[in-house]
C-alpha cells in the first residue's frame, strides 16, 4: 500500500453537527511525507541493476495466472487474472467485488485500461465492462466476445481488440458515446487485429498475425510482414518518428513504408516469439517474450532478464509504467516491479569475472579496479577489462558491457584480497599466491613479499607498507626492495592488525586491532595508543581513515570513533547514529558516508564538523546528528562484521562512491540521488462511526454522519507504489 493509517476521534471529540468527510480529513491529515525515490528509470542501467520486487503465484500473492494491469487516477493498480479482478496498493491485493446482484461478464480478466476520466475498462473472456464511481456498466455489443487490448485514444475513443470464439476471428472495435462499432468482420481493414497502439503523433496502428495496419489517419493502409507465431503484439514509437514492431529475432522499424531491423536480439534468443513491446519515459525499450523473459534495449546496449535471474516467470503478458516511473512486468506467474534507486550494483551480470569481491580501488585516472575471487577487473566507461594469469579466452557469458580479457604473464594472483595505487600510479594487487603491481598492463611480481592474507597496502611519505596477516609489516622502497619487516609481536599486541591507514604526506602508520585499540607507529616506535579508557569504542576495529586534516576516524563494532589532538571521542546510536556497528567510512565534498550494519548512512559534513568542534571544546559528544539511511529498499546491501582488506570503499575522482556488497560492487552517485517528486494521492478507504462502517466512493463528498456521533474511525491511505514501506504520516 502505499501506506495506510487509522485515526480515531473518541468521546472527547464529540461531533454535534453533521460533518462532511472531506472537512474532517483535512483536520486529521496535516501532511504526508514523500519517500526519496526515482521519478524515472536511469536509462544507463541494465534491468538487473534496478531494484526488483516480485509478487508470485507460487508464494500465495495471487490465486491464478496474471494477464493485465492498469492504474487509475486514484493511484491504485488493478490486476486482471484468470480468476478475477484485484486492486493492488503495492503491499496488499484485494479482490474486487461487484455491486449486489451484478457481475462481470466473466471472472477471466483478459485486458484492462484506465481512462483519463477515472473509468476502469475491464475486458474479459466473454465481454466488456467499465467501472467508475461505484457504477458497473456492461456493453451488449461485446457479449461473448473475448477482449484483448484496450486503449484510450487522445480524442477519447476507446479502441478494443475483440474476438469471436466460434469461429475464431479477431477484429478492431471502437467505443464512442457508449456505443460499439467493429471493423474487419468482412475481411477488410481491422480484420485479424490482435494489438492496437496510438503513437505520439496520434496515428492509430493495429497489429495482425502477418502485418500491421495504419488505421488512422484514413484511409487505412496495410504493411505486410512474415507471419509471426504470436502475431505483431508489440508496437512502440521509434526515436526517428517511425514505428517499432516486435518480430521474432529482433525489433524492426517501419518508416516511410520500409521495414528494417532496428534492434537484433541476443544470439540465444533469435527464435523467441515476442508478446509485448514497451518504451518507457526515458526511451528504454522493454520486450516481453512468450517463453524467455525480458529483453531490454537502452543507450545502445542490450541486456536480458529471465526467471533464472529472479523474474516471476518467463511468459510476459504486459509491461506498464506507473505514474511514479516504476516499470511493472506482468507474467503468467506473477507481478514484478523495477525501479531506480540510489545504489547501483555491478556483478557478473554486468561483466565482472566473479561476484565475490573483496576490495575496490578508485584510481586517479577515473577507472575503478575490483579485486574478485577470480581475477582483477578494471571498469572504465562502459568497458570491463579482466586480468587473469591463464590464457585469454572468449567471453561467452551474456552481458551488456564491452568485456575484454587479458592474459598477464607473471600474474600469480587469482583470488584478490587487497588493491592499492601508489604515488607513482602503480596498482598493487595482493592475493593468496603473492603480491605485485601493474605498470601499463605489465604485472611485476614481488617475490620477496609473502602470499597469504594481505590485510592492507598503504603508503606514507617514505614508502609503501604491506600488512601480512601472519608475517607482520613489510616496508617496501620505490624500487621494490624490502627495507624491513616488523613482526606483530614488536608492536606489543596480541594479534595482527585488523585495519591500517597512512597519510602520504606524513611518515608513519595508524593500526587498529580486534580488541579495540588504535596505535600510531612512526620510525620504529609507538608514538600514541588509544583504547576504551581514552574514549575509543571498546570493540573490534573494522577500518581506519585519515582525513585531510589529519584526523583519524575509526570504524568499530561499537560506533564511530574520532582521534584528534591526543583525544578520542565516539559516536554511537545514543548520539544520533541509527546503529552502532560501523564497517567503514568514506567522504565526498558534502558528506561523510558510513557503511553500517543497518545500511549506508549519510551525515552532512557540516553536522560532523559541528560535533567535532563541540568535542574539541569540551562540549557534548552525545549531541544528536541528523542522518539519512539507505538500506536494501534503496539497492544497498552491505557486509556486517567482516574483516576487510584495502579497501572496502572509496570515493572516485568524479565524486561517486564505490563499495563492496554481497552482489559484487555497488556505486552511489551523491550528486544524482533519485527523488520522487510525485505527491501521493490520499484516499479514504472507510469511515466507522459508532461501530457502523461507511464506504466512501472516490471524490464523493456527500457522506454525512449522524448528529451526536461519539466515536469516529477513519481508515485512509496514501498511494505511493515506489516503496510503500518508506511512507510516513505526520
List keywords for this structure.
730 residues; mainly beta; Methylamine Dehydrogenase, Chain H; 4-stranded antiparallel sheet; 63 strands; 3% helix; 45% strand
Can you describe this structure?
- The radius of gyration is 31 Å and the shape is globular.
- It is mostly beta strands and 730 residues long.
- A hairpin with a 5-residue loop joins strand 28 (316-321) and strand 29.
- Among the domains are: 12-37 and 676-729, no CATH class; 344-489, Methylamine Dehydrogenase, Chain H.
- The longest helix is centred in the last third of the chain and has 12 residues, at 605-616.
- It has two helices and 63 strands.
- The chain starts with a strand and ends with a strand.
- Residues 9-38 have low confidence and may be disordered.
